[in-house]
Structure formats: C-alpha cells, structure tokens
C-alpha cells in the first residue's frame, strides 16, 4: 500500500542583535546575493526555499526579524508555530554573542513551544571573514553545549558555510513535526481508550457499548439477564 505524503512547510525564525547579518545570511542562502550596504529590517520579512531531505521535499519558510527593539512588536505572533530558531551573532562583537541568551529566553517565553527543553536552536556565528574576532569558536561551542544547541559559523559576505545551518534547521524542524504528529496520535489513542473504558464500566450490572461504528450512539446492556 502506498501513502501520499503531505507537503511539509517548516517555519524557521532568525533572531539576534541588529547588524549581525540575519538578512545577509538569509539573502545569501536563498537568493545567492550579498550587499555591503546596511538596510535595517523593519518589522519582518520572509523568503521561501525548497530543499530535499532524505528524499522528502520540504519548503523552508525563513522569517527574518528586526534586531532593533524599535521594530520588535510582532514577536509573539511571529514566534509561535516555529519549527526551529536560528540565533545569529557577529563573531567580531562580544556583545551580540552575550545578547543571545536573552534572545533565546525571550523566544521561548513568546513562542511557548510544547516542549521548551527539546526545542531546536541553531546558533550561527557570522562575519568570519573579518580579522577582529571577539568570540572564539570554542567559546561559542561551550555555550551551545550548555543550552543544547548546535553551532555553525561562516560568512554571508564570502559565501562561507551559509547552507549548513539551514539544512540542519530543516532536519531539526522536520523532527519537530514528526514528534508532535506522533504525540498527537498517542493522545488520540489514549482518548479512544479512556472512552472505551468509561463505557465498559458503566456500573456493576450494566455496561454500555457503542451502537454504531462511529461511536455517536450508545446502547446500555444489562449483564444480569
Ligand atoms: N564583513 C561582513 N559583513 C557582513 C556579513 N554579513 C553581513 N554583513 C554586513 O553587516 C551589515 C548588517 O547586515 P544585515 O544583514 O543587514 O544585519 P541584520 O542582522 O539583518 O540587521 P537588522 O535588520 O537591523 O536586525 C551590512 O552592512 C552587511 O553588509 C559578513 O559575513 N561579513
Ligand atoms: Mg535585517
């Protein structure tokens, strides 16, 4: 028997301080373009890209947010239903790295994922082409280990390792979808089971059985007869 697979769309959110290169990373990955000109993102922006993972075609909906506090009013609406969150910092800015802890906490608070401890975060250190580095790979890796995130670094400008974090985000997001689908199925089975038990033990003389296959009508039967 063959099953027709539903197309999957994964929502990936990019967050981090202003100027770290969120828009640049997204544009490099989706459009293969880069500009040195800085135009702060106002509100949010999203781009889609289709990728193939384990023979499955998945659409990535990549949401680029504004790092500037002035444009962050959309947070709760935007973060909800996300499948993966990418925390971006600039390796030449210690402050942008330190800020990720707050960004992550704020994300979990606003997004309210089903299982916060298991929600996938990908940390991206951008601008590795620059020489005045302030955050070492080791330091970033150490923090990622503490919070259970995966770490990638590269350069949107030089097109260095930009694809890897997105593919990893897609894989983690896909796992999220599968986990929540199986949880839903388990809950449904549990509900069916408790419904069944309620019916069987109506009282000590009678029991109740489903009258139709759809369980919409019920029949009380007397055990004593
Ligand atoms: N050298 C270098 N510069 C980069 C790189 N990525 C981005 N930039 C530059 O950094 C500046 C900010 O990049 P954006 O992508 O606009 O940053 P952002 O995080 O989207 O900023 P907001 O929209 O304000 O939150 C721009 O001038 C980019 O050209 C990189 O990998 N290397
Ligand atoms: Mg931007």
Automatic annotation (TrEMBL):
What does the entry give for GO biological process? endosome to lysosome transport; phagosome-lysosome fusion; protein transport; regulation of immune system process
Task: Output the Gene3D superfamilies linked to this UniProt entry.
Answer: P-loop containing nucleotide triphosphate hydrolases
The reply to whether Transport figures as a keyword in the UniProt entry is yes
Membrane-topology annotation of the record: Lipid-anchor
For this protein, the record's InterPro entries field holds: P-loop_NTPase, Small_GTP-bd, Small_GTPase
Function in brief: Controls vesicular trafficking from endosomes to the trans-Golgi network (TGN). Acts as a negative regulator of TLR9 signaling and can suppress TLR9-triggered TNFA, IL6, and IFNB production in macrophages by promoting TLR9 lysosomal degradation. Also negatively regulates TLR4 signaling in macrophages by promoting lysosomal degradation of TLR4. Promotes megakaryocytic differentiation by increasing NF-kappa-B-dependent IL6 production and subsequently enhancing the association of STAT3 with GATA1. Not involved in the regulation of the EGF- and EGFR degradation pathway.
Protein name as it appears in the record = Ras-related protein Rab-7b
Task: Please give the organism.
Answer: Amphiprion ocellaris (Clown anemonefish)
